[in-house]
């Protein structure tokens, strides 16, 4: 018995050594050949199996296609979610059951209330303002001569990562003493207007608004792209009819454009709302959650990983999850509705 | 044994297997290895100091994984300091550093991929890790323990001890009770180095009167998500001076509440400097500019003559060269530091340091850990360090230290005249020491309406039961 085990080990070592430690070109070429042969064999087997006439039961085909994805979801999403929910009922190192204490703390303690207030502020302001700016912009540049260039311009921030955008905006908000030359754009403008330089990132609660501006700057491009496409899809005959009935300018916008693109508007609003709820990068990069600017996602990270308070972090993650769920459901339903219309 | 390590050694072993098969060699794997000093054999040239570690086992061809918080230039100096050890023992040190160490180390332990050795920067974190993962961290071996007894004071041994058992051996140390200043500016203005706390305040007032276009103090506490830590150091230094070491010990152990009246008055004393619009923030703005000035840029106005004094640790020395390559540190140089004077007879010295812990008990890990606790490493490190590194290791030869500030720190750390106390925020539980204490101090400086009592009561409220 022991002998067989040794032999198996020996051969396994030979094989894995051959596969893992290719040093010479000949060895590497040989490895490539092995890989190609393996590929042909495996693909051939799959094709052969698929090609077999209908003897395979339906459930097996379904399982073969959906199975791996379901397994990955269960392992990578469902299990961690359940475990996080479970952990949120325990103390900082998960050894002592504390019931709902973490949740009570999150809603009762003033510092966590500030976090929840900030998150609410973000969710109210970012989707509405980003969608508003995107929509107005889309209508304004629609069918003008410079439409393409104008659209590219506002879409550009989408291409920048959130951390990159945060660093750019931190430079914009940079503060220097009035006696010295300003390095931040915003304060240079203030000084140019004869005003005192302002601590954009420090003075609460307005600093939240200046952080929110960053996400609006990024998301407005997204809103504009989707809404612009929706506007272009409004049938010409409706617009024509409305025009014959005497609708103009703002009225046209209010009674024709907006109702026609309502499904797209809802999708844009809810998608941005979900992004906003999860916002973390901007806060962490620009203020680190200091000066009363922390949001749920940032506080969750800080509690879990910096302060070693696992239970509290899990509770905050669950709270975030519970807030996002209704938005997701609404978003999916609207998507389905708009597809039915089409 | 970690997954990563397992796979590595399997790969190495299988590689050897193939080599043996190809060479039709029948000897046991590893027998042909033998470059450099063979385990337990005689040492290579110039390796006499390392003989004691070579004798600890068959080190040749082994690898030790080290995970630390030390990044940047200091990381290069760390790696350079192991070179002699690696040459003499044949053991390879693979160094990995991360700014996210404090967050990642627990994750790595939980996921079963702990490093062989980690440098833990806070005794509080060491306590937490040992309590949360009692099986992951190895108690210090006999050899390490002997070195710690030989080269470190009882206080330092105590900081590396959890529940009566030694886990961490001290590595580097720092001294934080320093005030950086420009010797030239002081000389020109005819100012003396203050010897008492009252002298310090009198000097500040003198500067306000003599030089109304500058401010006596400058500071910055921004440091990413650790923003606020320099302000906690300020308060700790003042607590040591106004309330004394005894109160300080009770304070970080939570034997007295965080918002004890003595701490409130210490914070008020700190506020007489940091929240005094006449005193701060030289060349940087008003009081609230402290909160979002990067900690490493907080002292730079001294070089422009805009500010006179900046309280910071000896390791602040490495920052000056960010401004100009040729900034000279020394009593006759561009900048130097004096000891933050005390308000009482006691001469407290605030400081910190890292602690080496092992997660494995393989011979090569134990040998390297023992080496790090020894005078041999301390002197190897001193030879390759720039400004800003010292150790509390009594075997360290001060002559080897490169910078005057390091020699001064070493002198203070080694002297009986000064009472060393470890940075309290590093000793407190995570939610306070790495959370509400930073947050509270940041709020105290950025929000003019926050009172001392409010700030300390907020921190007290966050102390875990």
From TrEMBL, chain A:
The lineage of its organism: Bacteria, Bacillati, Actinomycetota, Actinomycetes, Micrococcales. It is found in: Cell membrane. CDD domains: TM_PBP2 (cd06261). This is ABC transporter. It comes from Cellulomonas aerilata. InterPro entries: ABC_transporter_permease (IPR051393), MetI-like (IPR000515), MetI-like_sf (IPR035906). It is a multi-pass membrane protein. It comes from the Bacteria. The chain crosses the membrane at residues 29-50, 59-82, 120-140, 152-172, 209-231, 252-274, 312-332. One of its GO terms (biological process) is transmembrane transport.
TrEMBL record, chain B:
Keywords: Signal, Transport. The keyword Signal applies. Residues 1-23 form the signal peptide. Gene3D superfamilies: Periplasmic binding protein-like II. The keyword Nucleus does not apply. Pfam families: SBP_bac_1. Coiled coil: none annotated. InterPro entries: Bact_solute-bd_prot1, SBP. It comes from the Bacteria. Belongs to the bacterial solute-binding protein 1 family. This is Alpha-glucoside ABC transporter substrate-binding protein. It comes from Cellulomonas aerilata.
């Amino acid at each position: 018995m022991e002998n067989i085990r040794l032999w198996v080990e020996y051969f396994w070592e030979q094989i894995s050594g051959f596969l893992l430690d290719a040093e010479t070109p000949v060895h590497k070429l040989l490895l490539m050949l092995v890989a190609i042969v393996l590929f042909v064999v495996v693909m051939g087997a799959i094709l052969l199996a698929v090609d077999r006439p209908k003897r395979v039961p339906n459930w097996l085909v379904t399982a073969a296609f959906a199975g791996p994805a379901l397994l990955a979801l269960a392992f990578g999403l469902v299990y961690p979610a359940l475990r996080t929910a479970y952990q949120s009922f325990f103390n900082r190192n998960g050894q002592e059951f504390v019931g709902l204490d973490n949740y009570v703390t999150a809603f009762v303690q003033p510092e966590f209330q500030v976090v929840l207030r900030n998150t609410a502020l973000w969710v109210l302001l970012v989707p509405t303002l980003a969608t508003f700016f995107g929509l107005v912009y889309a209508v304004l540049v629609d069918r003008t001569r410079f439409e393409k260039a104008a659209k590219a311009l506002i879409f550009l921030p989408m291409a920048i990562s959130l951390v990159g955008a945060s660093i750019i905006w931190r430079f914009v908000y940079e503060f220097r003493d009035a006696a010295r030359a300003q390095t931040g754009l915003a304060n240079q403008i203030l000084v140019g207007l004869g005003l005192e330089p302002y601590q954009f990132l420090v003075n609460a609660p307005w600093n939240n608004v200046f952080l929110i501006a960053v996400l609006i700057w990024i998301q407005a491009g997204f809103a504009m792209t989707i809404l612009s496409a929706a506007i272009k899809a409004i049938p010409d005959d409706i617009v024509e009819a409305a025009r014959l009935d005497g609708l103009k300018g703002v009225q046209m916008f209010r009674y024709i454009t907006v109702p026609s693109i309502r499904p797209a508007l809802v999708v844009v609003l809810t998608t941005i709302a979900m992004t906003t709820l999860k916002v973390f990068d901007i806060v962490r990069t620009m203020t680190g959650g200091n000066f009363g600017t922390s949001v749920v996602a940032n506080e969750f990270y800080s509690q879990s990983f910096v302060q070693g308070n696992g239970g509290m972090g899990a509770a905050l993650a669950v709270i975030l999850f519970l807030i996002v769920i209704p938005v997701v459901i609404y978003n999916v339903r609207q998507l389905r509705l708009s597809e039915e219309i089409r | 044994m970690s997954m990563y390590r397992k796979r590595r050694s399997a790969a190495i072993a299988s590689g050897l297997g193939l080599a043996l098969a190809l060479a039709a060699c029948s000897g046991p794997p590893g027998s042909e290895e033998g470059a450099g000093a063979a385990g337990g054999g005689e040492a290579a040239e110039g390796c006499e100091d390392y003989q004691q570690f070579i004798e600890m086992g068959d080190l040749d061809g082994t690898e030790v994984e080290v995970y630390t918080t030390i990044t940047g230039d200091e990381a290069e100096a760390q790696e350079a300091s192991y070179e002699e050890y690696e040459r003499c023992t044949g053991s390879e040190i693979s160094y990995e550093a991360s700014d996210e160490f404090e967050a990642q180390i627990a994750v790595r332990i939980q996921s079963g991929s702990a490093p062989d050795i980690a440098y833990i920067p806070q005794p509080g974190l060491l306590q937490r890790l040992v309590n949360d993962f009692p099986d992951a961290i190895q108690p210090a071996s006999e050899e390490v323990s002997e070195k710690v007894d030989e080269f470190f004071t009882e206080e330092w041994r105590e900081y590396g001890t959890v529940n009566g058992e030694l886990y961490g051996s001290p590595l580097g140390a720092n001294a934080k009770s320093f005030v950086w200043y420009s010797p030239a500016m002081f000389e020109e203005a005819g100012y003396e180095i203050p010897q008492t706390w009252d002298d310090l305040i009198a000097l500040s007032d003198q500067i306000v009167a003599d030089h109304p276009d500058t401010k006596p103090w400058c500071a910055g506490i921004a440091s990413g998500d650790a923003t606020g830590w320099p302000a906690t150091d300020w308060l700790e230094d003042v607590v040591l001076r106004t309330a004394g070491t005894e109160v300080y010990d009770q304070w970080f152990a939570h034997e007295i509440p965080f918002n004890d009246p003595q701490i409130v008055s210490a914070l008020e004393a700190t506020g007489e400097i940091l929240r005094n619009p006449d005193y701060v923030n030289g060349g940087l703005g008003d009081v609230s500019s402290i909160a979002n000035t990067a900690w490493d840029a907080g002292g730079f106005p001294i070089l422009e003559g805009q500010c006179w004094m900046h309280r910071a640790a000896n390791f602040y020395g490495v920052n000056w060269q960010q401004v100009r390559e040729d900034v000279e540190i020394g009593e006759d140089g561009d900048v130097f530091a004096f000891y933050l004077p005390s308000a009482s007879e006691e001469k407290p010295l605030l400081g910190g340091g890292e602690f080496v812990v092992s997660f494995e008990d393989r011979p090569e890990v134990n040998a390297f850990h023992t080496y790090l606790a020894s005078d041999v490493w301390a002197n190897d490190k001193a030879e390759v360090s720039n400004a800003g590194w010292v150790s509390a290791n009594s075997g360290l030869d001060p002559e080897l230290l490169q910078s005057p500030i390091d020699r001064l720190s070493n002198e203070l750390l080694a002297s009986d005249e000064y009472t060393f106390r470890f940075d309290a925020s590093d000793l407190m539980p995570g939610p306070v020491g790495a959370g509400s204490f930073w947050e509270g101090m940041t709020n105290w400086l950025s929000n003019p309406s926050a009172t001392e009592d409010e700030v300390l009561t907020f921190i007290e409220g966050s102390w875990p039961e």
